[in-house]
Design brief:
The complex is a heterodimer of chains A (about 775) and B (about 50).
Chain A lengths: L18 H7 L1 E4 L2 E7 L6 H12 L4 E7 L4 E7 L1 E2 L2 E2 L3 H11 L4 E2 L5 H32 L4 H35 L6 H20 L7 H30 L8 E5 L5 E5 L8 E4 L9 E6 L1 E4 L1 H4 L5 E3 L4 E2 L4 E2 L4 E5 L7 H12 L2 H4 L3 H28 L2 H15 L2 H20 L2 E3 L2 H7 L4 E4 L1 H5 E7 L7 H11 L5 H9 L10 E4 L3 E6 L2 E6 L1 H4 L14 E7 L2 E12 L3 H10 L3 E5 L4 H11 L3 E3 L4 H13 L4 E4 L6 H6 L2 E5 L4 H6 L2 E3 L6 H35 L5 H20 L10 H18 L1
Parallel strand pairs in A: 18-25, 18-27, 25-26, 27-28, 28-29
Antiparallel strand pairs in A: 1-2, 2-4, 2-7, 3-4, 5-6, 8-9, 8-10, 10-16, 11-14, 11-16, 12-13, 12-15, 17-29, 19-24, 20-21, 21-22, 22-23, 23-24
Helix pairs in contact in A: 2-3, 4-5, 4-7, 5-6, 5-7, 6-7, 6-12, 7-13, 7-25, 9-21, 11-12, 12-24, 13-24, 13-25, 14-24, 16-17, 24-25
Chain B lengths: L3 H24 L6 H7 L10
The chains are: A alpha+beta (about 775), B mainly alpha (about 50).
Chain lengths: ~775, ~50
Amino acid sequence: MSCCAPGTEGSITGQLPSSEELALSSRIVGPGLRQTELSVPQVHCGTCITAIETSLKALPAVERARVNLSTKRVSIIWKEMVGNEPTDPSSLVKAIADATGYDTHLFSDGEDSGEALQRELIRAVALSGFAAANIMLLSVSVWSGADASTRDLFHWISAMIAAPALIYGGRFFYQSAWRALRRGRTNMDVPIALAITLSYAVSVWETIHHGQHAWFDATVSLLFFLLIGRTLDHIMRDRARSAISGLARLSPRGAMIIGKDGSREYRAVEDIAPGERVAIAMGERVPVDGVVESGASDMDVSIVNGESAPRAVRAGDALQAGMLSLTGSLVLVATASARQSFLSEIIALMEAAEGGRARYRRIADRAAQVYSPAVHLLALLAFLGWGFFGGDWKQAMLIAIAVLIITCPCALGLAVPVVQVVAAGRLFKNGIMVKDGSAMERLAEVDTVAFDKTGTLTLGKPKLVNLGSATAAHLAVAAGLAAHSRHPLSKALTGIASGPVPVFYDVVEIPGQGLEARSPQGLYRLGNRRFACGDSGVDTSAASSTLEVILSCDGKELARFLFEDELRPDSRAAIDELAAQGLSSGILSGDRQGSVSSLASRLGITRWAAELAPKAKAEFCVSLAEQGHKVLMVGDGINDAPALAAAHVSIAPATAADIGRQAADFVFMHESLEAVPLAIDVSRQAGRLIRQNFALAIGYNIIAVPIALAGYATPLIAAIAMSTSSIIVIANALRLNRTGHPNRHIATATGHDARQTGEARLA
Amino acid sequence: MNMLIFLIPIALFLGGLGLFAFLWSLKSGQYEDLDGAAWRILEEDSRDRT
């Protein structure tokens, strides 16, 4: 049970939310009391719960703390003042980090509307379930031959139970049907609403006239089944959304503003006006576009434009929102407000790009487009036919209503959501979140896959490629120097050095250049060639795909380290598997030609494009769509967001920028790229099962409709037929949990490895 | 027929009791953290803190 003991994490990688951000986002719940919701995605066992809760409750400021393991959230109520001391909310986060070593993220509020709807739906399911069970019990005694007065009594009781259920549970269908009709469309809910209303009305009429057949049981059980389908659909979306919103936010909520008189103030990003000076500490992201006024640093720009190599900046350089300062502190003069920053340009591009997705209509809606006019026409024909040829208009109406009830898309309403919920559950187990069901339908149609490079095919982490060429002693010196820096190349160097590492006390980091330390042996320098070996060297690193770091002593080169962006695990296997599934893959990158072409040849991808602007990526997707291709875009950066929105369907890794994650239909949590072929495979299986389910439902109608048309459909037959068809459809959907196991063996084996590393990193 | 007069109300009442119990448990947050509850039962009761 040492999984969540402190120290196992190694070092805390992410940045903890600052006290200002915590105070900004907390909610006042009582006099002097504030509530903070934190997301701790790594919480996974009982020890974690105890460790977090005890450490929090030990703080004098904490009034109440509770961990929710399902949503992986911690809710803390804390006092603003303890005695006369104001509370520092960052002590809460620190307590969690000290107790478990886990990263904490602020959980953004305002996600409650979905949860409220889910509660309403579950209540409606409960109520209609109660009504259906009781009415069915009464109906059984009617079918087994109750005498006339008892039958009437039972019908009246049924009518009274059914009415509230119909209003409370049926409102979801009435509202949806009304919305569709008002726009001159029909959807599945129109025949549903019509059938439950008409069957209830005719049953009441029958009951008043002491009739033999009442349809209350059919009405309410129909409602019950359909509400289950609707609730499952909603829960699936809600679970994915809450899992995604629990991830770390990459864009800052606030920034430190330096006033004219030198005063410092922490303000929300939206309130920063152009011309104001913003302080950016090492390890912080740039909140708004601006120009560097003073300071120098290396910026991680991978999430902004896909470039994998850090960019050195000094006073006078322009910065874009989203860049991360790696090695130095900067003072920035904002040139645009948050609303006009680079990010909002991207949002405008995304809105313009939103193409195929908005036009896509879900399978169920397309089926309804054909199905509901056909059903209504059939009922009308039955009414006219029996009226003119039979002469008895009352019987004609009863038969028409029987047709409507028996054709009511009970199985159709379940056919799609049940399959998609089972499929989403299977993907969820493999760390893939699905935003909604339509995404899965679209993914099944895909024929082309476009990958982003940095952060998607690669991890955005450099890896040493010429380990053998440097001596162990030089490597140790380099690692000792590199331990003083946050630069990604330095981190990679410290990571690989084993054994004792010399300790340097007097290390100076020169942003954009490298590290420098005085020692008895001389002046060690670690950095780019020009810095390490004096001005004589030629800077070669910009042209080739690899990055170069030189270790020198008194200006003499000792060792040369070459780095390449590390591939995401299983990239090659995933690309091969996509090819085996008949999909063609390509790379769309914002990075330089050289690095993209070498990566493409390593992965065996022939089609690639480099140095693309965000707009060009989106246009590329649109042009492919115009040629009739269905494009899947896999990307993570801010620069990918327009392409993610323009593509037919899109997938983003969990490490993606917030905006990319929101634009994507699927988000995968594990490091392995195997998630992409797996998601496509499961979606295709789900598509097959949905079509089978439709076939089953139509087959049922072919048998049942003639019975109804002939006038033999009694409530008993309707009840049996509808329940059986629903159960068959659900049973067929559950097959998805078992299908495809043999041929997924290899994939799950490798996927398992990746999960191991993923968890080892988390745990 | 006569016994129906009290049997049906009793049946409906019992069913309603079940429904009410479910709605109450939903409202009191018993379905909020299904995974956590399984672990919490293993914890020792802290008498001093309650």
